[in-house]
Design brief:
Elements (H helix, E strand, L loop, with lengths): L16 H14 L4 E3 L6 H6 L6 H6 L3 H9 L21 H10 L8 H12 L12 H12 L6 H7 L2 E5 L9 H8 L5 E3 L5 H4 L6 H12 L6 H17 L4 E4 L11 H13 L4 H22 L2 E4 L3 E2 L4 H7 L7 E2 L9 H7 L7 E3 L6 H10 L5 E3 L9 H15 L16 H22 L5 H19 L8
Parallel strand pairs: 1-2, 2-3, 4-5, 5-8, 8-9
Antiparallel strand pairs: 6-7
Length: 476
């Protein structure tokens, strides 16, 4: 028989009774604040079509690379988890069997943030009262499946019920944004916006780069076989995205390197890439130049720039070939910021129109590089602990290592960066509790008053992400 499933009301709060009481009071102020989700990768078609979600496996397992990377590490093949192959086929289509496999191995997630997130979803969304394991797998599968057929579990209903104020998805410049247009033209009042992710058209190592650049030209009517036409095409697409609600761009480069090349040098580099006669150094230099070019474009259209460097993406070529991108094989790498960002910051870093949010997978840079940079450049803000570090311990380390130099107000609150829709409120719950615990300790140490801590808690949960991502502004 499965064990009872309960969420302790003091989870993630400090163990010392007095400090824990402060954390409780702070958390009570923000527990019900609307969720600002300014960066993520959920599917806009869910909200455009408002069709019922599928099974428990389709909703909770297959979109979440945190889950299947752990399972794969323990010898469970991706085919047993229902993942679609790169050619569109699925080796195992039976969702119940996939869910049973997941449930039998749920113990692997003990102590991980995934366990915190999923248990939150099981209790608060589906009202499950027993822990997930092999014995309860079918009961979970059936109960969740039955719930998903109810009107209250349609995508738009869940969006409203989970108190999400705004949700940003992420699309390629080649996306026609039809789903965002459908959301805009519907009677539903939920705010789902897009973000401009130019990687397929600015990264020479991206599959089909030259074809993508050509397609960019077709969409915009510009000659993207020339450097000026290529840049103009990006400006046009950015404005198209902004017209459908975008307030930000997102850049997932391998490094944070920037460059500020003369126009002639940049033109020759671009032509070399289009010809296919480039090497790895050329590709890295081009990505570096494009970060600076995108920053220049932000001066004109006002889009906030997010830089997510430091991931060795798709580390295993066999998995990439068989299943495609984003299958859990993205691994953190050492990342330089001080030297890498200098060309762009020399050119644009003091311009008050520029707003850049920096993320890292290299925690060693928190206090050495990122906090000092954000602590002086008005154009820079620090994104939250990201990806491998959006855990209670990772969030805590982020605050400990950045607050002394950058403070709270050179950060942007929390964002969830997820494809798993129902994990959004669960992730925000964890972030809010960790921040309240950190603030409570500052109050207990008499480093700030509880009144000040209350202000900061509200700002971190709600005010700062709205401001940093310019979400008070409607679409143009």
């Amino acid at each position: 028989m499965s064990k009872p499933l309960e969420l302790h009301p003091d989870r993630l709060f400090p163990p010392e009774p007095g400090t824990r009481s402060i954390a409780r009071r702070l958390h009570a102020l923000i527990a019900d604040k609307p969720i600002i989700s300014p960066h993520g990768h959920t599917d806009p078609r869910w909200f455009a079509g408002n069709k019922p979600f599928g099974t428990a496996a389709e909703l909770l397992l297959t979109p979440d690379h945190y889950l299947f990377r752990m399972l794969f590490s323990q010898g469970i093949p991706l085919s047993a988890l229902g993942l679609t192959r790169a050619d569109g086929s699925a080796e195992m289509a039976d969702a119940r069997e996939c869910w049973r496999t997941f449930a039998e191995h749920y113990y692997l997630f003990r102590g991980t943030p995934s366990r915190l997130w999923l248990d939150w979803v099981f209790v608060n969304v589906f009202r499950m009262a027993e822990q997930l394991d092999a014995d309860s797998a079918d009961r979970y599968f059936d109960a969740i499946g039955e719930a998903l057929l109810q009107p209250g579990f349609l995508p738009r209903s869940l969006f409203d019920r989970l108190n999400i104020e705004v949700l940003a998805t992420t699309e390629s410049p080649l996306d026609d944004l039809r789903h965002h247009a459908a959301i805009r033209d519907s009677e539903w009042q939920g705010r789902v916006i897009t973000a401009y992710r130019p990687d397929p058209t600015v990264d020479p190592d991206f599959e089909g780069f030259r074809d993508n650049v050509e397609r960019l030209g077709e969409l915009t009517g510009e000659s993207t076989d020339t450097w000026p036409g290529y840049l103009t095409a990006h400006r046009i697409r950015r404005l198209f995205f902004k017209g459908l609600g975008a307030t930000s761009t997102d850049h997932g480069h391998p490094t944070a390197r920037t460059a500020d090349l003369d126009r002639g040098v940049a033109e020759r580099l671009f032509q070399k890439l289009l010809s296919g006669r480039h090497d790895n150094d050329d590709a890295e230099l081009f990505r570096a130049q494009m970060l600076t070019e995108m920053a220049r474009m932000s001066l004109d259209d006002g889009l906030v720039m997010q830089i997510h460097p430091g991931s060795f993406r798709n580390h295993n070529r066999l998995i990439l070939k068989a299943y495609g991108r984003d299958k859990g094989f993205d691994i953190p790498a050492r990342t330089d910021y001080v030297v890498a960002l200098k060309p762009m910051l020399d050119a644009l870093g003091l311009d008050e129109r520029l707003s850049i949010i920096l993320f890292t997978l290299d925690e060693s840079t928190y206090s050495r590089e990122l906090a000092p940079l954000a602590g002086v450049y008005p154009s820079l803000k620090l994104g939250p602990a990201w990806w491998f570090h959006d855990s209670p311990a990772g969030m805590r380390r982020f605050r400990e290592q950045t607050t002394d130099t950058a403070g709270f107000y050179n950060t942007v609150g929390f964002n969830d960066d997820t494809r798993a829709f129902l994990s959004i409120p669960a992730r925000h719950d964890v972030a809010r509790r960790v921040d309240c615990g950190f603030l409570a300790e500052l109050v207990a140490e008499h480093r700030m008053s509880e009144e000040e801590a209350a202000d900061v808690a509200v700002d971190l949960a709600y005010t700062l992400p709205r401001k940093a991502y310019k979400l008070d502004r409607g679409p143009c």
